[in-house]
């Protein structure tokens, strides 16, 4: 099965007609018909049957579908890699960030970057750490920001800073002293549960599982941002990373350090053995400065 056969197979699956497949591939309908016929001739069996004016995949085609789609995805990945290599000499700022950092920290740094590099090309995407690794390896992004340590021979990580886990609560929950909150003070209190299956989520659940009586958790969420929103709406407290708790006053919530302390590192992630450009180095410096000012200083 040749690459062009894979393209007509995938396009026909998507469109359901040869006219639609031809439009996807930017070829004529007769050319699409001929290409599909050639594919079926080479394979020795039909891939589609015509049913009430549309093409329906055959049993034999169904057996090929998963494998063909994987090959097609690999081709798309190869195309993206080639495009990234073509653009590599332009040194844009291409950042992939976990969602936690994308609402406040990263936009603030980008605002400063635009003031200093007005003509720079900037691309921002949000991904979880596993997808971030793929984005960096295929050169769709050049810098990743994550709370997870990534172990891969093609990846280099450097901690930008580390700060303790915060307890966040609705406005007026505590007095104004700003004192840390001992973990035992969570006993029997209403809390938003974090069901995230990452290292931080597991650490937070382990940290509070021996509290007696246990916190009253009636709402479970997958993301720290959603926990913050529910806290702002008055549903109780939540344990979140320090970066989610930044600028707590803007949402009318309180944030305190949890004791005993659980420090959470933020990693700058890039490809091993590659030097960062001037704008990329400046971006990381701005991120680090903002974190030090907000969380530590």
Name its key features.
297 residues, alpha/beta, D-Maltodextrin-Binding Protein, domain 2, five-stranded mixed beta sheet, four-stranded mixed beta sheet, WH_DNA-bd_sf, LysR family transcriptional regulator, DNA-binding transcription factor activity
User: H/E order of the elements?
Assistant: HHHEEHEHHEHEEEEEHEHEEEH
Just give the CATH class of the largest domain: Alpha Beta
Q: What is the correct CATH architecture of the largest domain?
A: 3-Layer(aba) Sandwich
Class per helix and strand makeup: alpha/beta
Task: Tell me the helix content.
Answer: 40-55%
Radius of gyration from the alpha-carbon trace, in angstroms: 26 Å
In the CATH hierarchy, the third-tier topology of the largest domain is known as D-Maltodextrin-Binding Protein, domain 2
Number of folding domains?
3
Question: What this model shows, in words?
Answer:
With 297 residues, the chain is α/β, with parallel strands linked by helices. It has three domains: 3-85, Arc Repressor Mutant, subunit A (Orthogonal Bundle); 91-162 and 265-296, Periplasmic binding protein-like II (D-Maltodextrin-Binding Protein, domain 2, 3-Layer(aba) Sandwich); 166-261, D-Maltodextrin-Binding Protein, domain 2 (3-Layer(aba) Sandwich), CATH 3.40.190.10. The protein contains ten helices and 13 strands. A five-stranded mixed β-sheet has the order 4-3-5-13-6, sandwiched between helices. α8 (199-208) links the parallel β9 and β10. InterPro entries: LysR_HTH_N, LysR_subst-bd, WH-like_DNA-bd_sf, WH_DNA-bd_sf. Belongs to the LysR transcriptional regulatory family. It holds the Pfam family HTH_1.
């Amino acid at each position: 099965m040749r690459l062009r056969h894979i393209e007509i197979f995938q396009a026909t699956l998507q469109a359901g007609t040869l006219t639609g497949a031809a439009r996807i591939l930017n070829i004529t309908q007769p050319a699409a018909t001929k290409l599909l016929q050639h594919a079926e001739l080479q394979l020795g069996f039909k891939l589609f049957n015509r049913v009430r004016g549309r093409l329906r995949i055959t049993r034999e085609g169904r057996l090929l579908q998963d494998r063909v789609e994987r090959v097609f995805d690999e081709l798309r990945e190869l195309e993206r890699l080639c495009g990234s290599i073509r653009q590599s000499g332009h040194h844009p700022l291409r950042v992939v960030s976990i969602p936690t950092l994308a609402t406040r920290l990263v936009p603030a740094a980008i605002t400063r970057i635009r003031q200093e590099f007005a003509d720079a090309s900037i691309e921002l995407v949000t991904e979880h750490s596993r997808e971030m690794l793929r984005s960096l390896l295929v050169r769709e992004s050049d810098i990743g920001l994550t709370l997870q340590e990534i172990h891969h021979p093609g990846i280099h990580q450097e901690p930008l800073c580390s700060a303790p886990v915060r307890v966040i609560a609705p406005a007026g929950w505590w007095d104004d002293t700003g004192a840390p909150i001992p973990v035992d003070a969570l006993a029997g209190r209403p809390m938003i549960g974090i069901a995230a299956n990452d290292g931080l989520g597991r650490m937070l659940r382990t940290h509070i599982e021996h509290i007696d009586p246990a916190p009253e958790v009636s709402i479970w969420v997958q993301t720290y941002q959603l926990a913050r929103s529910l806290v702002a709406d008055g549903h109780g407290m939540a344990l979140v990373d320090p970066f989610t708790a930044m600028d707590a006053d803007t949402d009318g919530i309180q944030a305190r350090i949890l004791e005993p302390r659980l420090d959470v590192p933020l990693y700058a992630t890039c490809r091993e053995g590659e030097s960062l450009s001037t704008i990329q180095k400046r971006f990381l410096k701005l991120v680090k400065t903002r974190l030090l000012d907000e969380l530590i200083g």
